[in-house]
Amino acid sequence: MEPGGRRGLASARGPASATRKPRQEPGAGAEARAPGASAVRARRFLLCLYLVGFLDLFGVSMVVPLLSLHVKSLGASPTVAGIVGSSYGILQLFSSTLVGCWSDVVGRRSSLLVCILFSALGYLILGASTNVFLFVLARVPVGIFKHTLSISRALLSDLVAEKERPLVIGQFNAASGVGFILGPMVGGYLTELDGGFYLTAFICFSVFILNAGLVWLFPWRDAELTSTEKGLPVGKNPALWGKTDCEVQEAAAPCQSRASGKPARPPWVEVASTLRDMKSLLFSEMWDIFMVRLLMAVAAMLYYSNFMVGLQERFGVRPRAAGYLISYSSALGALAGLALGPILRLYRHDGHAVLLHSSALTCVLLLLHAATHTVAVAVLCASLLAVSTAVGRTCITDLQLAAGGAQASGTVIGVGQSVTAVGRIIAPLLSGVAQEVSPCGPPSLGAVLALVAIFIMSVNRPRYGRGGRDKLKSE
């Protein structure tokens, strides 16, 4: 991946920097002010992206907790409701990789706008769903195009240096997490009004339209494609950001083909070509990263999917108190994203070590939660699990991007989301079987899966050390 990643980046930067230098020579004062101004512009753009993540999860989390109640109110049986609920995960399984690769080809701005607008359409139809057919129809565009967060993370990967990437993605996850905390509270209040679900769905549609307008008005040209020594460094990958000497909003692949005298290929041809190029990397060199992602995702889902039921059956905790505990845990998870900077400095920016230790902590906490007989210990486990899983999710994404290289970050993140979608399909089945054995079965099984993930990471640790990353990219 080295030739297409760092060396390709160097060649892409070369002409751009060469054209900028003569413009800066006449004004030495402007040259001195450039780094600080560039850092301010970069920070402003990142803050805009954080706002997009916040609004996205704020809108979604208003509606999602109400979906199962609404589909049952439309007359659907529990079996039909379960099938409809799983359809979203199945659509995400097949669309995540394609949409991620498509964003690599057409550019982040266009793909973000299309995904947000089609998701808004889905929530608009949901707000008019007076029967099961319309409800199912509303879930289709959302299942296919609800990849705003994935594309935003790929854009963050394009903008920041590799050393800063986990910190910035952690801050983005924290901003999104705040939306996930506030959304259910607003949705729960609105649903108690007359026609509350339909009002909530329409407000969610309005939030997505607002998000699309925000993306359209983004200061795209403020995101300079050169690294800065102060502030947040940007411009790591112009190929995925936009055309170097064409338009900032467009992808560089067509621009590069024009520069080399070759005719631009249709986007679907570019997508198929990128997927072919990435196939060997994704399914040979990176298999262990995706296996760890799958195992840890299923482990976490086994715990959270039965959280309220387990608290009620084992400790007699009422649903309202369990809901408060979930909100409290979500808040801790958001704060964990902000704490990634000090954690990474403590580990000398060794993301693999952070992931290994956070996974080990998750394994121990799942075992402790399964074995405890007191509510206090269960609350302690929930608090620490919120932190360990939040840190682990950020680190596994960073490892994917580091191993996959800069030229296809959208594709790599998309494949990761597809792997997580597989976990969403598998986890309910495993959870049901484990719960038949014991109420402590799901967290116990999650601990076993986390232990397998730890073993895989320990065996493959040399590949992802500081030297191992470069070695993997050069394979």
UniProtKB/TrEMBL annotation:
<feature type="transmembrane region" description="Helical">
    <location>
        <begin position="408"/>
        <end position="430"/>
    </location>
</feature>
<comment type="similarity">
    <text>Belongs to the major facilitator superfamily.</text>
</comment>
<dbReference type="InterPro" id="IPR020846">
    <property type="entry name" value="MFS_dom"/>
</dbReference>
<feature type="transmembrane region" description="Helical">
    <location>
        <begin position="325"/>
        <end position="347"/>
    </location>
</feature>
<keyword id="KW-1133">Transmembrane helix</keyword>
<keyword id="KW-0813">Transport</keyword>
<feature type="transmembrane region" description="Helical">
    <location>
        <begin position="168"/>
        <end position="190"/>
    </location>
</feature>
<dbReference type="InterPro" id="IPR001958">
    <property type="entry name" value="Tet-R_TetA/multi-R_MdtG-like"/>
</dbReference>
<dbReference type="Pfam" id="PF07690">
    <property type="entry name" value="MFS_1"/>
</dbReference>
<feature type="domain" description="Major facilitator superfamily (MFS) profile">
    <location>
        <begin position="45"/>
        <end position="465"/>
    </location>
</feature>
<feature type="region of interest" description="Disordered">
    <location>
        <begin position="1"/>
        <end position="32"/>
    </location>
</feature>
<feature type="transmembrane region" description="Helical">
    <location>
        <begin position="110"/>
        <end position="126"/>
    </location>
</feature>
<dbReference type="GO" id="GO:0016020">
    <property type="term" value="C:membrane"/>
</dbReference>
<feature type="transmembrane region" description="Helical">
    <location>
        <begin position="196"/>
        <end position="218"/>
    </location>
</feature>
<feature type="transmembrane region" description="Helical">
    <location>
        <begin position="80"/>
        <end position="103"/>
    </location>
</feature>
<feature type="transmembrane region" description="Helical">
    <location>
        <begin position="442"/>
        <end position="459"/>
    </location>
</feature>
<feature type="transmembrane region" description="Helical">
    <location>
        <begin position="377"/>
        <end position="396"/>
    </location>
</feature>
<keyword id="KW-0812">Transmembrane</keyword>
<feature type="transmembrane region" description="Helical">
    <location>
        <begin position="286"/>
        <end position="305"/>
    </location>
</feature>
<dbReference type="InterPro" id="IPR036259">
    <property type="entry name" value="MFS_trans_sf"/>
</dbReference>
<keyword id="KW-0472">Membrane</keyword>
<feature type="transmembrane region" description="Helical">
    <location>
        <begin position="45"/>
        <end position="68"/>
    </location>
</feature>
<dbReference type="InterPro" id="IPR011701">
    <property type="entry name" value="MFS"/>
</dbReference>
<dbReference type="GO" id="GO:0022857">
    <property type="term" value="F:transmembrane transporter activity"/>
</dbReference>
<protein>
    <submittedName>
        <fullName>Major facilitator superfamily domain-containing protein 9 isoform X1</fullName>
    </submittedName>
</protein>
